[in-house]
Design a protein that fits this description.
two-stranded antiparallel sheet, 14 helices, 2 strands, 46% helix, 2% strand, disordered N terminus
């Protein structure tokens, strides 16, 4: 049997004394090359395709909203469970798994066996935002990976908000995860980057009234009215600055130029979130401050720590 080296034994014995814990569960980075290694892979992926930044950020969101931040959404199908990748919010939509594979492989070379896939998702989300011009924040580590996927939970209508969700549905979904209405609006500001598929905005541009008519018409050319035609055609979530993390998303809401029904629900005339949308549209610093606090809060939802779960060697399968 192979035993850990004396150096590793010292590391793990003294780790709690050296890492400056933020709470009883998560701690600061203890592998000097970890953050630079991940940042390099994320930067390369975004250089090749700017949309990838939004896709990687979305993986963290979809992870945390299904049974907590445990990387369950990265698992492929196995004989004992069905992957979350086939659930309605992820099917033909969630992407970036190959980038996570590259990151995990690179991390294992510099920090073998000590960094979970759940932590990688949290760091990758931060790096994606920062690379695209958004804020940088400290990511605490110590999350562990799930031993199974949660297909039924991921597929449930009240777990991950749908593109056609009402404001009350959005508020309820976030409350179910311990997140406030302020967290909801701030985190939806992540839609300042990325693109949406026609199948998710078709109803909004053809049937809804709370949309600027000229904006709706301009997007109808990208998205045929008939279901099944052009379903995967794309439109930016924030047409003003689709590859820059800023507050222009909220300005599009004020102009009724959101591409998704659920986005426009945040500003729809007298709603509970109208004031926050106006605040973020006029005060980018307020948005950045609240977004940072909210995504850190989201990254702590139902985390596994200590001896719970495991640290996967391959993010796609249980050890």
């Amino acid at each position: 049997m192979a035993f850990p080296s004396p150096l590793l034994l010292v590391l793990f014995v003294f780790l709690p004394l050296c890492i400056g814990r933020s709470n009883a569960n998560l701690y600061y980075n203890f592998c000097p090359q970890l953050f630079s290694t991940i940042r390099g892979v994320v930067q390369s992926a975004i250089n090749k395709e700017p949309r990838m930044g939004a896709s990687l950020l979305r993986l963290h969101f979809h992870d945390c909203f299904v049974h907590g931040c445990d990387a369950s959404n990265l698992l492929d199908d196995s004989p004992s469970f069905k992957s979350e990748k086939g659930a309605a919010p992820n099917r033909n939509s969630a992407r970036g798994f190959e980038v996570i594979d590259q990151i995990k492989s690179a991390v294992e070379k510099v920090c073998p066996g000590v960094v979970s896939c759940a932590d990688i998702l949290a760091i990758t989300a931060r790096d994606s935002v920062a690379i695209l011009g958004g804020p940088n924040w400290d990511v605490k580590l110590g999350r562990r990976d799930s031993l199974t996927a949660y297909f039924a939970e991921a597929n449930a209508t009240n777990t991950i908000p749908a593109a056609n969700a009402s404001l009350s549905n959005l508020i309820s979904s976030f409350q179910n995860h311990g997140l406030s209405t302020r967290d909801l609006v701030a985190l939806y500001g992540a839609h300042t980057i990325g693109e949406a598929r026609c199948t998710n905005f078709r109803q909004h541009i053809y049937q809804d009234k709370n949309i600027d008519p000229s904006f709706a018409k301009s997007n109808q050319g990208k998205c045929p009215k008939q279901n099944g035609n052009g379903d995967n055609n794309l439109a930016p979530l924030d047409a003003q600055s689709p590859n820059k993390f800023d507050n222009t998303y909220f300005k599009t809401l004020l102009n009724k130029q959101a591409i998704l029904h659920s986005d426009q629900e945040l500003y729809n005339g007298g709603g509970a979130t109208d004031t926050l949308v106006r605040t973020y549209a006029s005060n980018p610093n307020a948005f950045i401050s609240d977004f940072t606090a909210s995504i850190i809060k989201m990254g702590n939802i139902n985390i596994l720590t200590g001896s719970q779960g495991q640290i996967r060697k391959n993010c796609r399968r249980v050890n």
